[in-house]
Amino acid sequence: MARQTGGMRAIGLFGGSFDPVHIGHLRAALDVFESLGLDELRFIPASRSPGKPPPVAPGPIRKHWLEQASSDVAGFAVDDRELRRGGESFTNETLIDIRHEIPHASLYWILGADAFAGLGNWHEAETLGHLAHWVVITRPGFDLPSPLSGPSWLARTQTANPRELRPGETGGVLALPVTPLAISASEIRSRIARGLRIDYLVPESIRAELLDRHVYAANTKTHPA
Ligand code: ATP
Question: Which residues line ligand 1 (CB under 6 A)?
Fold first, then answer.
Protein backbone atom coordinates (compact mmCIF):
# COMPACT_ATOMS: atom_id res chain seq x y z
CA MET A 1 0.00 0.00 0.00
CA ALA A 2 1.46 3.37 -0.97
CA ARG A 3 1.48 5.94 1.78
CA GLN A 4 1.15 9.73 1.52
CA THR A 5 4.41 10.88 3.11
CA GLY A 6 4.54 14.46 1.88
CA GLY A 7 7.95 13.77 0.34
CA MET A 8 9.45 12.59 3.64
CA ARG A 9 11.17 9.26 3.90
CA ALA A 10 9.20 6.82 6.03
CA ILE A 11 11.61 4.71 8.07
CA GLY A 12 10.68 1.77 10.29
CA LEU A 13 13.02 0.97 13.18
CA PHE A 14 12.83 -2.53 14.62
CA GLY A 15 14.95 -2.97 17.75
CA GLY A 16 15.64 -6.14 19.70
CA SER A 17 18.25 -8.63 20.81
CA PHE A 18 17.84 -10.78 17.67
CA ASP A 19 19.63 -13.62 19.50
CA PRO A 20 19.13 -15.00 16.86
CA VAL A 21 16.83 -13.39 14.28
CA HIS A 22 13.97 -15.74 13.33
CA ILE A 23 11.09 -15.79 10.88
CA GLY A 24 8.71 -14.35 13.50
CA HIS A 25 10.79 -11.14 13.35
CA LEU A 26 11.23 -11.20 9.57
CA ARG A 27 7.66 -11.90 8.54
CA ALA A 28 6.39 -9.25 11.02
CA ALA A 29 8.90 -6.73 9.61
CA LEU A 30 7.69 -7.39 6.08
CA ASP A 31 4.04 -7.02 7.13
CA VAL A 32 4.82 -3.63 8.71
CA PHE A 33 6.91 -2.56 5.72
CA GLU A 34 4.02 -3.23 3.33
CA SER A 35 1.17 -2.03 5.56
CA LEU A 36 2.82 1.33 6.19
CA GLY A 37 4.37 1.66 2.73
CA LEU A 38 7.80 2.28 4.30
CA ASP A 39 10.79 3.39 2.24
CA GLU A 40 13.18 1.60 4.55
CA LEU A 41 13.10 -0.71 7.55
CA ARG A 42 16.16 -0.93 9.79
CA PHE A 43 16.79 -3.81 12.17
CA ILE A 44 18.66 -2.44 15.17
CA PRO A 45 20.38 -5.16 17.20
CA ALA A 46 20.77 -4.10 20.85
CA SER A 47 24.11 -4.26 22.58
CA ARG A 48 22.14 -5.18 25.67
CA SER A 49 18.39 -4.79 26.16
CA PRO A 50 17.63 -3.15 29.52
CA GLY A 51 15.88 -5.52 31.89
CA LYS A 52 16.91 -8.64 29.95
CA PRO A 53 19.90 -10.95 30.48
CA PRO A 54 22.82 -10.12 28.14
CA PRO A 55 22.53 -11.73 24.70
CA VAL A 56 24.22 -15.10 24.30
CA ALA A 57 25.64 -14.50 20.81
CA PRO A 58 28.18 -11.66 20.39
CA GLY A 59 26.91 -8.47 18.75
CA PRO A 60 28.90 -8.77 15.49
CA ILE A 61 27.58 -12.30 14.94
CA ARG A 62 23.94 -11.26 15.61
CA LYS A 63 24.45 -8.39 13.16
CA HIS A 64 25.92 -10.72 10.54
CA TRP A 65 22.98 -13.13 10.84
CA LEU A 66 20.55 -10.20 10.51
CA GLU A 67 22.32 -8.99 7.36
CA GLN A 68 22.25 -12.45 5.82
CA ALA A 69 18.61 -13.02 6.75
CA SER A 70 17.30 -9.65 5.52
CA SER A 71 19.34 -9.19 2.35
CA ASP A 72 16.62 -10.45 -0.03
CA VAL A 73 14.23 -7.57 0.66
CA ALA A 74 15.04 -4.23 -0.96
CA GLY A 75 14.49 -1.61 1.73
CA PHE A 76 15.57 -3.81 4.63
CA ALA A 77 18.82 -2.75 6.32
CA VAL A 78 20.75 -3.37 9.53
CA ASP A 79 21.74 -0.40 11.69
CA ASP A 80 24.50 -1.27 14.18
CA ARG A 81 24.62 1.98 16.18
CA GLU A 82 23.55 0.31 19.45
CA LEU A 83 26.34 -2.26 19.11
CA ARG A 84 28.87 0.50 18.43
CA ARG A 85 27.59 2.51 21.40
CA GLY A 86 27.84 -0.53 23.72
CA GLY A 87 26.40 -0.81 27.23
CA GLU A 88 22.65 -0.80 27.80
CA SER A 89 20.73 0.11 24.65
CA PHE A 90 18.28 2.85 25.53
CA THR A 91 15.77 3.48 22.76
CA ASN A 92 15.49 7.21 23.50
CA GLU A 93 19.23 7.62 22.80
CA THR A 94 18.94 5.65 19.57
CA LEU A 95 15.98 7.72 18.38
CA ILE A 96 17.66 11.05 19.24
CA ASP A 97 20.72 9.92 17.31
CA ILE A 98 18.73 8.89 14.23
CA ARG A 99 16.63 12.06 14.38
CA HIS A 100 19.84 14.17 14.28
CA GLU A 101 21.15 12.19 11.37
CA ILE A 102 17.90 12.27 9.34
CA PRO A 103 15.92 15.28 10.59
CA HIS A 104 13.26 15.19 7.87
CA ALA A 105 12.16 11.56 8.04
CA SER A 106 9.04 10.04 9.57
CA LEU A 107 10.21 7.50 12.13
CA TYR A 108 8.18 4.45 13.20
CA TRP A 109 9.47 2.41 16.12
CA ILE A 110 8.24 -1.20 15.83
CA LEU A 111 7.80 -3.48 18.84
CA GLY A 112 5.88 -6.59 19.82
CA ALA A 113 2.91 -6.58 22.19
CA ASP A 114 5.10 -8.22 24.88
CA ALA A 115 7.70 -5.46 24.70
CA PHE A 116 5.02 -2.78 24.56
CA ALA A 117 3.49 -3.99 27.84
CA GLY A 118 6.68 -2.88 29.63
CA LEU A 119 7.01 0.50 27.90
CA GLY A 120 6.15 2.47 31.05
CA ASN A 121 9.41 1.21 32.61
CA TRP A 122 11.63 2.20 29.68
CA HIS A 123 14.35 4.79 30.19
CA GLU A 124 12.90 8.32 29.74
CA ALA A 125 9.54 6.77 28.78
CA GLU A 126 7.75 10.12 28.88
CA THR A 127 10.02 11.52 26.14
CA LEU A 128 9.59 8.62 23.72
CA GLY A 129 6.37 10.01 22.28
CA HIS A 130 8.28 13.06 20.99
CA LEU A 131 10.72 10.95 19.05
CA ALA A 132 8.72 8.60 16.77
CA HIS A 133 5.40 7.00 16.01
CA TRP A 134 4.93 3.60 17.69
CA VAL A 135 3.82 0.48 15.85
CA VAL A 136 2.73 -2.31 18.18
CA ILE A 137 2.64 -5.65 16.39
CA THR A 138 0.60 -8.62 17.53
CA ARG A 139 2.37 -11.68 18.87
CA PRO A 140 0.70 -15.02 19.71
CA GLY A 141 0.41 -15.50 23.46
CA PHE A 142 0.58 -11.80 24.30
CA ASP A 143 -2.57 -9.68 24.41
CA LEU A 144 -2.47 -5.98 23.70
CA PRO A 145 -3.52 -4.20 26.89
CA SER A 146 -6.81 -2.38 26.31
CA PRO A 147 -6.93 0.51 26.91
CA LEU A 148 -3.21 0.98 26.41
CA SER A 149 -1.62 2.32 29.57
CA GLY A 150 1.84 3.62 30.39
CA PRO A 151 3.42 6.98 29.64
CA SER A 152 0.97 9.89 29.26
CA TRP A 153 1.60 10.38 25.53
CA LEU A 154 -0.12 7.05 24.84
CA ALA A 155 -3.40 8.89 25.35
CA ARG A 156 -2.79 11.04 22.24
CA THR A 157 -3.39 8.98 19.10
CA GLN A 158 -4.25 5.30 19.32
CA THR A 159 -5.43 3.78 16.10
CA ALA A 160 -5.74 0.63 14.06
CA ASN A 161 -5.48 2.60 10.81
CA PRO A 162 -1.95 3.21 9.46
CA ARG A 163 -3.18 6.32 7.62
CA GLU A 164 -3.86 8.04 10.94
CA LEU A 165 -0.14 8.15 11.77
CA ARG A 166 0.65 11.54 10.29
CA PRO A 167 3.94 11.86 8.39
CA GLY A 168 6.40 14.18 10.12
CA GLU A 169 4.59 13.94 13.46
CA THR A 170 5.31 11.67 16.43
CA GLY A 171 3.52 10.04 19.34
CA GLY A 172 0.86 8.09 17.44
CA VAL A 173 0.34 4.48 18.48
CA LEU A 174 -0.75 1.97 15.85
CA ALA A 175 -1.87 -1.54 16.81
CA LEU A 176 -1.04 -3.64 13.77
CA PRO A 177 -1.95 -7.31 13.28
CA VAL A 178 0.87 -9.26 11.63
CA THR A 179 1.17 -12.89 10.56
CA PRO A 180 0.84 -14.83 13.82
CA LEU A 181 3.98 -16.91 14.33
CA ALA A 182 4.55 -18.30 17.81
CA ILE A 183 8.34 -18.37 17.50
CA SER A 184 10.87 -16.97 19.95
CA ALA A 185 14.65 -16.65 19.97
CA SER A 186 14.80 -18.39 23.34
CA GLU A 187 12.99 -21.41 21.89
CA ILE A 188 15.51 -21.55 19.04
CA ARG A 189 18.49 -21.33 21.41
CA SER A 190 16.97 -24.07 23.53
CA ARG A 191 16.31 -26.30 20.52
CA ILE A 192 19.91 -25.95 19.33
CA ALA A 193 21.25 -26.73 22.80
CA ARG A 194 19.04 -29.84 22.95
CA GLY A 195 20.12 -31.02 19.50
CA LEU A 196 16.69 -30.47 17.93
CA ARG A 197 16.21 -29.19 14.40
CA ILE A 198 15.45 -25.51 13.71
CA ASP A 199 14.31 -25.89 10.09
CA TYR A 200 11.45 -23.54 9.09
CA LEU A 201 11.91 -21.44 12.26
CA VAL A 202 14.84 -19.42 10.90
CA PRO A 203 15.67 -18.48 7.30
CA GLU A 204 17.43 -21.24 5.43
CA SER A 205 20.23 -18.79 4.56
CA ILE A 206 21.43 -18.74 8.19
CA ARG A 207 20.31 -22.12 9.53
CA ALA A 208 23.62 -23.90 8.95
CA GLU A 209 25.58 -20.98 10.43
CA LEU A 210 23.50 -20.95 13.59
CA LEU A 211 24.48 -24.59 14.08
CA ASP A 212 28.09 -24.30 12.90
CA ARG A 213 29.14 -21.35 14.98
CA HIS A 214 28.82 -23.32 18.24
CA VAL A 215 27.38 -20.23 19.88
CA TYR A 216 24.30 -21.93 21.27
CA ALA A 217 25.05 -25.58 20.65
CA ALA A 218 25.65 -28.04 23.43
CA ASN A 219 26.17 -30.84 20.94
CA THR A 220 26.21 -29.98 17.23
CA LYS A 221 27.01 -33.54 16.17
CA THR A 222 23.33 -34.39 16.20
CA HIS A 223 22.56 -31.77 13.52
CA PRO A 224 23.25 -32.67 9.95
CA ALA A 225 23.41 -29.11 8.49
P1 ATP B 1 13.72 -13.98 23.42
O2 ATP B 1 12.92 -15.26 23.24
O3 ATP B 1 15.19 -14.21 23.57
O4 ATP B 1 13.15 -13.08 24.50
P5 ATP B 1 12.42 -12.74 21.11
O6 ATP B 1 12.07 -13.86 20.20
O7 ATP B 1 11.32 -12.13 21.92
O8 ATP B 1 13.64 -13.15 22.05
P9 ATP B 1 13.66 -10.18 20.56
O10 ATP B 1 14.88 -9.99 19.75
O11 ATP B 1 13.76 -9.96 22.01
O12 ATP B 1 13.13 -11.66 20.22
O13 ATP B 1 12.45 -9.34 19.95
C14 ATP B 1 12.64 -8.14 19.26
C15 ATP B 1 11.26 -7.58 18.98
O16 ATP B 1 10.54 -8.47 18.13
C17 ATP B 1 10.39 -7.39 20.23
O18 ATP B 1 9.67 -6.17 20.09
C19 ATP B 1 9.46 -8.59 20.19
O20 ATP B 1 8.23 -8.31 20.81
C21 ATP B 1 9.28 -8.80 18.69
N22 ATP B 1 9.02 -10.21 18.36
C23 ATP B 1 9.83 -11.26 18.60
N24 ATP B 1 9.29 -12.40 18.14
C25 ATP B 1 8.11 -12.07 17.58
C26 ATP B 1 7.06 -12.84 16.95
N27 ATP B 1 7.13 -14.18 16.81
N28 ATP B 1 5.96 -12.15 16.49
C29 ATP B 1 5.88 -10.80 16.65
N30 ATP B 1 6.84 -10.04 17.25
C31 ATP B 1 7.93 -10.66 17.71
Answer: 16-19, 24-25, 28, 111-112, 114-115, 137, 139, 181, 183-186
Residues ≥6 apart with Cβ < 8 Å to 141: 182
Amino acid making up residue 68: Q
Task: For residue 44, report the distance from its CA to the centre of ligand 1, in Å.
Answer: 13
Where are the chain's structural domains?
10-181
In tens, the pLDDT along 128-152 reads 999 999 999 999 999 876 666 778 8
This model's pTM is above 0.85:
yes
pLDDT at 224: 39
What residues pair up with 43 in beta bridges, in sequence order? 14, 78
Query: Which residue has a Cα nearest atom 26 of ligand 1?
Result: 24
For the structural domain made of 10-181, what CATH number should be given?
3.40.50.620
Can you tell me the distance from the alpha carbon of 159 to that of 165, in angstroms, rounded to the nearest whole number? 8
| Mutation test residue for ligand 1: of 19, 21, 25, 56, the one with most atoms within 8 Å of CB | 25
Beta bridge partners of 110: 14, 135
Q: How far apart are CA 128 and CA 137, in angstroms?
A: 17
Among residues 130, 111, 139, 110, which one has the least CA distance to residue 40? 110
| pLDDT single digits (tens) 63-106 | 999 999 999 999 999 999 999 999 999 999 999 999 999 999 99
| Residue-wise pLDDT tens digits, 147-197 | 667 788 888 788 999 999 999 999 999 999 999 999 999 999 999 999 999
